[in-house]
Design a protein that fits this description.
By secondary structure, the protein is an alpha/beta fold. The chain is built from 13 helices and 13 strands. The strands form three sheets. A seven-stranded mixed β-sheet has the order 2-8-7-6-5-3-4. It is globular, with a radius of gyration of 21 Å. The structure holds pyridoxal-5'-phosphate.
């Protein structure tokens, strides 16, 4: 049996270490996972009640069209219901766009390093991948990305805030890019962390879609809304474009429980506001810590920070924090070998990590 050539080059997704395994291996009673940018506060309490209530109906297929959450989300976003495409997480929306537009005779342009699923799904479709290095500020190099576009380019990916750097593309830069990009090339803006953004020049991409119908926006309930395990995300685009991609979707790709949770989450936006504020407070602590110890970092608009330890490998910092009961993400696998990516946690978690790291760095400087 021979699989498609391009599949043989891929590796299955490497998940972070599960909490239970770390506890067992290291004999720790408390382990905190700050590796996947999940919401440290969980979802709003009322959302949990809605989920519990929906459990009475798990034997019944969900509404494949997701009409109720569709209407609610459309109202929240200020778009038409038919402009939305739901996915089993926004990962699946990425996959559906790749299935629809990419093939071996096409190419796709993305930053490097960025969120790995654009590349992964593009490889599966056999498309040529054009990766453009982030600039030295960790920003998407939109001039170089523009240069990489040709008549076979189908999708250009912009991750903003970018995972793993947390950097974003300003409105001015995005608009000047959209002005130049040919109208038959999709510009896919992945805004998985938009609810955390506080930068004033962050673009209102949904408003820009009126002028640029090739602009597609991907968002999710996994991060700020705290619903990662339920798997519900969405794409927003011109309704003609969505109607092209929609047949690729599995008929029941978002569950009844996920739809219900998302509806409830939109009824409790004050909770998201609280999370955004707490996240910023945590970010300030980390930035202060980095400055104090002369560590590198990219100013982040997400709920994570990529910290460059300069003289240490990311794996070494990861191992050190693991011994202390904190699971973070080593930058070695993310394209930043001397960095770790840490999800902003609760105040207690942030202070805990910063204390550990400070003690460690202090002890080393005394040697
Ligand atoms: C986490 C993440 C996603 C995927 O989220 P799901 O909706 O859980 O699939 C998409 N894009 C980026 C940049 C992410 O960090």
């Amino acid at each position: 049996m021979k699989a498609k050539e391009q599949i043989l080059t891929l590796k299955a997704y490497q998940p972070g270490k599960p909490i239970e395994e770390v506890k067992r291996e290291l004999g720790l009673t408390s382990v905190t996972k700050l590796a996947s940018n999940e919401n440290p506060f969980g979802c709003a309490p009322a959302v949990k009640d809605a989920v519990m209530d929906e459990l009475d109906r798990v034997s019944i297929y969900p509404d494949g069209y997701a009409a109720e959450i569709r209407d609610k989300l459309a109202h929240y976003l200020g778009v038409l219901p038919r402009q939305i495409l739901f996915g089993n997480g926004s990962d699946e929306v990425v996959e559906m766009f790749c299935r629809t537009y990419l093939s071996p005779d096409t190419n796709t342009v993305m930053a490097k390093p960025t969120f790995p699923q654009y590349r992964h799904n593009s490889v599966i479709e056999g498309a040529e991948i054009r990766e453009i290095a982030l600039d030295d500020q960790g920003h998407h190099d939109l001039d170089e990305m523009y240069e990489a576009i040709d008549e076979n380019t189908k999708i250009v990916w912009i991750c903003s805030p970018n995972n793993p750097t947390g950097t974003y593309v300003s409105k001015e830069k995005l608009v000047s890019f959209l002005e130049r990009v040919p109208k038959d090339v999709i510009v896919a803006c992945d805004e998985a962390y938009c609810e955390y953004v506080v930068a004033e020049d962050y673009p209102d991409t949904l408003a820009l879609q009126r002028d640029y119908p090739n602009l597609v926006v991907f968002r999710t309930f996994s991060k700020a809304f705290g619903l990662a395990s339920l798997r519900i995300g969405y794409g927003v685009a011109h309704e003609d474009l969505i109607s092209v991609v929609d047949p690729v979707r599995e008929p029941f790709n978002t569950s009844r429980v996920a739809q219900r949770a998302a509806i409830s989450a939109l009824d409790h936006l004050e909770y998201i506001e609280m999370c955004r504020i707490r996240n910023r407070e945590g970010m300030d602590l980390y930035e202060h810590f980095c400055e104090q110890y002369d560590l590198g970092y990219y100013p982040s608009q997400g709920n994570f920070i990529l910290i460059d330890f300069k003289t240490k490998q990311g794996d070494e910092v990861f191992q050190f924090l693991l011994q202390q009961g904190y699971i973070v993400r080593s930058g070695n696998a993310l394209g930043f070998p001397t960095s770790v990516r840490i999800t902003i946690g609760s105040e207690e978690q942030n202070k805990g990590i910063i204390d550990c790291l400070s003690n460690w760095l202090d002890a080393e400087s005394e040697k």
